[in-house]
Amino acid sequence: MTTTESTNESRLSEVGATHEASDPTRHIAEPGPLGLAAFAATTFLLSLFNAGIVPDSLEKVVLPLALFYGGLAQLLAGMWEFRKNNTFGATAFVSYGAFWLAFAGFVQFTEPALQAGGASKAQVGLATGLFLLMFAIFTAYMTLASLRTTAALIAVFVLLTLTFLALAIAEIAGASGLATVGGILGLLTALAAWYASAAGVTNATWGRVVLPVGPRS
Questions:
Q1: What are phi and psi of 172, to 5 degrees?
Q2: Which pLDDT does position 217 carry in this prediction?
Q3: Residue 78's closest CA among 99, 97, 93?
Q4: For the chain (length 217 residues), average pLDDT per consecutive 10?
Q5: How is 7-60 classified by DSSP, letter by letter?
Q6: Under 8 Å between Cβ of 52 and 39
Q7: Among 72, 45, 47, 32, which Cα is nearest to 197's?
Q8: Is 69 within 8 Å of 45 (Cβ atoms)?
Q9: pLDDT of residue 135
Q10: Can you give the pLDDT at residue 17?
Q11: pLDDT confidence of residue 18
Q12: How many helices (H) and strands (E) does the chain have?
């Protein structure tokens, strides 16, 4: 090996070491597609009931999905986003993972407890509406933050904000028609999230843009 070749190899090693030091998480897969897929699947299933497409008598089927996919998988994705130094992704996935876990607990334990305690249907609706309203507020300011991401994610957060608002108002006001609208918006949200997830995993696997997500701001 000549002195020049040795010097070039040394420089390449230094560049590689510098790149590794500047991004110590580059060997960690992107958790975003997983989190989006978990969110989309659970949102889609629940929205089928909210839209009146599937009978309410089967709604309990949402609970295991809310616990283990929408809840646990998103929570894990959020923890990996913290490791990737992605504040937006970490905040979104941990929060919505916790939302699904809390939703499962609310349906399984809180609603029956309120009814057993003598709460009227309107009062239970108010409690549910307030639960959803908190996440509508959270999603609204996450939508503002999403404006610095991609068009695909912006679509997800805009639709999700409208979904939460429609469902919250429907529960508080007892407006079943608005709940149906919220269900339809939820289905659109799920489709948008599935697309963003599919784009993330497909583009990463192919090593090029197969499914565009729009330019980053």
A1: -70, -40
A2: 54
A3: 93
A4: 49 46 79 98 98 95 97 98 96 98 97 95 96 98 97 98 98 96 98 98 96 84
A5: HHHHHHHHHHHHHHHH-TTTTSPP-HHHHHHHHHHHHHHHHHHHTTSS-GGGGG
A6: no
A7: 32
A8: no
A9: 98
A10: 45
A11: 46
A12: 9, 0
Residue 164 carries which side chain, given as an amino acid letter? F
- Residue 97's pLDDT is 98
- The C-alpha atoms of residue 179 and residue 171 are separated, in whole angstroms, by 7
> Are 105 and 128 in contact, with CB atoms under 8 Å apart?
no
pTM for the whole structure: 0.88
Report in angstroms the alpha-carbon separations of 96 from 6, 89, 109, 116.
52, 11, 19, 28
Distances (CA, A) of 6 to 13, 15, 17, 212: 11, 14, 16, 42
215 and 150 Cβ atoms separated by less than 8 Å: yes
Alpha-carbon dihedral sign for residues 144, 86, 133, 197:
positive
Element (H, E) at 87: helix 87-105
The backbone region for 214, taken as left when phi is positive above 0, alpha when psi lies in -120 to 50, beta otherwise, is left
